[in-house]
Amino acid sequence: MNRKLSLLSMIALTVAGLVFSACTTDADLDAQAGGKAFVGTRATAVHPMFGLYESDFIAGQHEVAGKISICNDYDNVYVKFTTTDGWQMGRTHLFIGPKEILLDPANGYVNKQGSPKNGQFPYGEAFDPQVTEWEFALPLTELYAMFGLDFETDKDVDVCPVVAAHAEVAKQIDADTWQTETAWGKGTKFVKKGNWSMYIEGYCVEFPPVDPPTPPAEYDLKEETAWAFDVNNPHEYGGNWAKYIQYDGEPLTVMLLAGQKETDMTVTLTPAGEGKVKMVFEGIVEIAPENDGHWVLQDVKDAIKIQGYADAPSGNPAPGQFTYYKGRELEIVVDAANYYGIHLDVAKLTYK
User: Fold this and answer.
1) Which of 100, 144, 266, 287 is the Cys-Cys partner for 149 at CB 3.0 to 4.6 Å?
2) Report field, pTM of the whole predicted structure over 0.85
3) Per-residue pLDDT tens for 262-304?
4) Are 246 and 234 in contact (CB under 8 A)?
């Protein structure tokens, strides 16, 4: 069952003033804020939209100039300002936290009559040139602390902050005329009469259930060295059992020998135009439970190594020095050659 928070415990948090951390500050806002520094934090990572709540962004009391989006991931709560239809933002002001803190004149965010002092809101940023998007990220640890909670131990408590989202917006009417307005995220009015400014209610922090991680399956790999080999036109380097194939420019499919034994792995060579040859490997898969019993590439960066030759090679090959291709893609294009050494690091996969 969710625990309830007392009004006194939330207000007590504000007696000494709230302190927030952030990545960037805008000193130019200090004067307008009456000496209170604004803080702007950009959220650069792509975050899942848990608990997404959206509200219209209203300019001049009546015109929809965009939207305010609120959501969270497992680390931060995000508030995003977006303007549309030609509207742009020159300055933003934002409060996010307990409603009781916002509406208590003692905290400095509203005056004695209850109208907002948006220049005193703790977060915001100025823009030159103006922008159409701004996003702020507040760590959930700080949000929970504003409610008198510990984020690590109190995730079972409903945390539903209010958001007061304000911006100075402008829209170009013609070459010489700009319409300038105040914009607020649509919600509940601060006061019933006179001031039309609003704060948003309805968003609550949300944590979707997390599936427990699946423990990695245990498996064995019987590792082997493999070489492409043409049973109809066999060739050996001569220094060991390493093989190479002869290629005459026509489509050719050859077997891969693993540990000097025949397998069902193959590589098919076809002309790719402009002095190139396409190679497609089949019968080889990646390490995964569904591939139990199959040939797989070993878990190394360059499991496939290819070298082309104008003349038939001899001696002991050095696959680590091959230059035509190194990697683990099963479909590749390489330079055309008369002969190829095609070496693979493979393994027979067996899950326990």
Assistant:
1) 144
2) no
3) 999 999 999 999 999 999 999 999 998 899 999 999 999 999 9
4) no
